[in-house]
């Protein structure tokens, strides 16, 4: 959901700026590039969150294994 909100905001901002430039082809390209950049940023943020969760799970598992091995 946050990805669609971010894309909507970037697209609206890009179209607003495009209206001021006067070049519709460049404006469309800029809007598409901005939307793609926002999408990539959202994907990167999601991947970072997933990696952090995996790292936390691995750390918990390692702590459990270390405790079991200490017995």
Briefly, what is this?
This protein is mainly α.
Describe this structure in words.
The protein has 71 residues and is mostly helical. The chain has one domain. It has 2 helices and no strands. The protein is rod-shaped. The N and C termini lie far apart (47 Å).
Overall outline: rod-shaped
Low-pLDDT residue intervals, each spanning 5 or more residues: none
What would you call the structural class?
mainly alpha
Tally of domains: 1
Question: How many DSSP H or I helices?
Answer: 2
Largest sheet: none
> What integer is the average pLDDT?
82
Helix content: over 70%
Order of helices and strands: HH
Work out the radius of gyration: 21 Å
Tell me the total number of β-strands: 0
N-C termini distance: 47 Å
Instruction: Report the β-strand fraction as a percent range.
Output: under 5%
List keywords for this structure.
single chain; 71 residues; mainly alpha; rod-shaped
Topology summary:
Layout: H1 2-21, H2 24-70
């Amino acid at each position: 959901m946050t990805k669609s909100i971010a894309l909507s905001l970037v697209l609206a901002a890009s179209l607003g700026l495009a209206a001021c430039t006067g070049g519709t082809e460049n404006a469309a390209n800029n809007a598409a590039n901005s939307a793609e950049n926002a999408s990539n940023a959202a994907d990167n943020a999601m991947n970072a969150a997933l990696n952090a969760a995996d790292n936390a799970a691995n750390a918990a598992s390692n702590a459990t294994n270390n405790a079991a091995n200490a017995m």
